[in-house]
From TrEMBL:
Residues 3-160 form the 6-phosphogluconate dehydrogenase NADP-binding domain. Belongs to the HIBADH-related family. SUPFAM superfamilies: 6-phosphogluconate dehydrogenase C-terminal domain-like (SSF48179), NAD(P)-binding Rossmann-fold domains (SSF51735). This is 2-hydroxy-3-oxopropionate reductase. It comes from uncultured Anaerotruncus sp. GO terms for molecular function: 2-hydroxy-3-oxopropionate reductase activity; NAD binding; NADP binding. It comes from the Bacteria. Transmembrane segments: none annotated. Coiled coil: none annotated. The keyword Oxidoreductase applies.
Amino acid sequence: MKKIGFIGVGVMGKSMVRNLMKNGYELTIYSRTKEKCLDVIEEGAVWCDDIRSCVAGQDVIITMVGYPKDVEEVYFGEGGVIANARKGAYLIDMTTTSPKLSVRIYNEAKRKSVFALDAPVSGGDTGAKNGTLSIMVGGDKEAFDACHQVFETMGTNIVYEGGPGCGQHTKMANQIALSGVVASVCEAIAYGRKVGLDVNTMLASISAGAAGSWQMTNTAPRMLKKDYAPGFFIKHYIKDMNIATEEAEDVGLELPILNEVLRLYERMDAEGLGNLGTQALIKEYEKDEIAASMSELL
């Protein structure tokens, strides 16, 4: 399987396209804005003006878009992926989306003799660039095995999670766990500043112990530098947390930590900060410091 159609060439999708091409795959691509894809087009990806032409005749179709509504738009309808994929093709949705939607895609694809996998990822822009993403896959095991070499070009931790929707459910668990970790890193930094610690020294100390995490090692330095460039958009994390909340409610589960972190991010989004990276949550903890500085000046 060497011919791949890739839909959604954004922050992470672009790096995934590059890694696929580096490993010898022939890529056709489609995205909303061609101008943002000119660099990968120059590197060898073939631009298509619509989904129909992007997926026609391809062995594998990969999608990496934004929201569940985007996934629906891409997969369904006369001009969508399922209607235009060749018989026996493999459809891999790597968007983080609703598990219920992934099951719907799987069932519709099966009726068309097409194989569908839900394969959301974790690792952000850094993982996408380095080809070290964690990939959580749901669908038929035979389809997972058939696509394993494709996954290996983009990730290093590639796990079959179970039937259709299980990849998305695993990603929801990832996003639930992540919410508390990001907030806790922010709170550790805020506390260190308040009590007069050298925060860089403090982080170097606790990162090597039981409190250490990927977020503390990779995201905390960006917080300190006030580098809020999106490896993962706040607005997209809000989408993920809302899906997780809905799925938890369906099974009668309350997630108080997730709901509180969601509230903080929604407040930032309401202030026009949704296009910043998730590490910008530290700004919520700096508000008191800013207010205190202003009152001293007054």
